[in-house]
C-alpha cells in the first residue's frame, strides 16, 4: 500500500465512507496466560458529528431503534427497569428525575400551586403503561400513541427565517440562558403533571433540540392516546421554580474571591463569603422569599396522534432524533457559510450562560458572593467544569435524550446487544464465524482468579494511528461482505419474512 494512502485526510475520508471511527481509541491488550500482546482498535463512540460522524451516526441509529421499539407496545414491557447509565460523551440516558426541591435534605416548601396558572385536571391513575384500545368502523381496533413538541416562550422579536433578534439590545438573553440551564426541570414537572392527569403511567422517549433562535424545545413520543385538551391544559399549567439564592446582581466582576484552605474570602476584606448552606437557610427563613427563577412553556404546542407501523410513525422517529448528532450551537450553522449576525447571537447567549450558576456546586456562585456547595480550591467564576456552560451547548449540557424506565424494558446497552445479536445470528446461520465482542473482556479471569487480559491505553503517532484506522476499514469491509452474503443466502433458502422497521437497512453498518 502506497504511503500516500496514510495521509490523514485520505484516511479520514476512507473511514467516513466505510462508517469507521475517525478518532479511534487504541489499547494494548496483554494476555497474562500466554504473554501475547495485541493492539485493539475501539471506536470513540462520540455522539457529535463534528467530532466523529461515524460514531455519531451509529449512536443515532441506536436511539432510533430504542425509540421505535418502545413506542407502540401492545403489551407491558417485561424486562428489568432501566437504571441511569454512566454518561458517555455528551449524549446521556436519563430517567425519571426527582426535582431538587423534593430531596429531603432541607425544609420542604408548600406544594400549593401558584394562583396565576391554570389548575390541573387530575384523574385516578390506572396501573398500566400501554395505551387504551379504541374501536372504529367495521369493528376495527386500534391503539394510537402521541407525538408532542413543546417550546419555550419568546424573549424578543426574531427575524423571520434567520433566527437572530431584530433588536439584540432588547432581547432577553438572561432569561433565555436561565431557561436553557433549567429546561430539564420544567420537562420533569411536565411529565409528573401529565401522569397525574392522563389516567395511566405515561411512558416517554424525548429529545431536546434547538430551534433556529437557539431556544431549546422538546420532541417527545408518548405511548398511548391522551386527549389533546388534556395535553394543552397540562402544558399551560406546568411551571418550574428554582429555589436558589438570588443571582441577579454580580458582586465580583473584576475581582476574584480567594481560597484560604477553608473558605473563599473577599479579596479586599478577607471576610469569608456566605456559605451555600447559610444562604439557603436564610432563604428558607424568609416568609417573603421568591424563587430565583420561574420558567414555563411557550404557547406553541404541536400534537399528533400516530399508529404504530405506519409511514408517519417511522418518519416521526427519525424526525425526533434528527439533530441528536449536533450540539445546540451547531444545529443551524454551516461550516462553509459564515453568518456574522448568527455567530454574534450565539456569543451573546453564551456570555450569559457562561457566568450563571448551573447547580448548587457551580463555581459561578462566587461571582454572586456565595461559596458553592461543598466548595474546594481552584474554583473560578466563568470556568465551571459543567458542559452546560460551553459555547456549543448554550445551557443544555446533558440529558439531550430522556427516556422513562418503562419505555422498552431494556437499557441502551441491551438495545446495542440486540443489534449485534441480529448480525451474529445471520452470520452463524450462513456458516461464518461472528466476531466475539467479549473475546478479550477485562471480566475474563485467568486460572489464578485475576483478570486474564490487561488493557493499557496506547498513544500512537499520526502515521501509526492512520494504519490502525485502515486496518479497521479492511476489517469492516470483510464483515460487511460476509454479512451481505449471509443475508443473500438467508433470503434464497428461508421462508418469506417481514423485515420492515424503523432501522431497516442500517443494522449492517453497526459497530
UniProtKB/TrEMBL annotation:
InterPro entries: RepSA. Pfam families: RepSA. Coiled coil: none annotated. Residues 104-116 have a biased composition (Basic and acidic residues). Residues 82-103 have a biased composition (Acidic residues). Signal peptide: none annotated. Residues 72-116, 485-511 are annotated as: Disordered. This is Replication initiator protein. It comes from Intrasporangium calvum (strain ATCC 23552 / DSM 43043 / JCM 3097 / NBRC 12989 / NCIMB 10167 / NRRL B-3866 / 7 KIP).
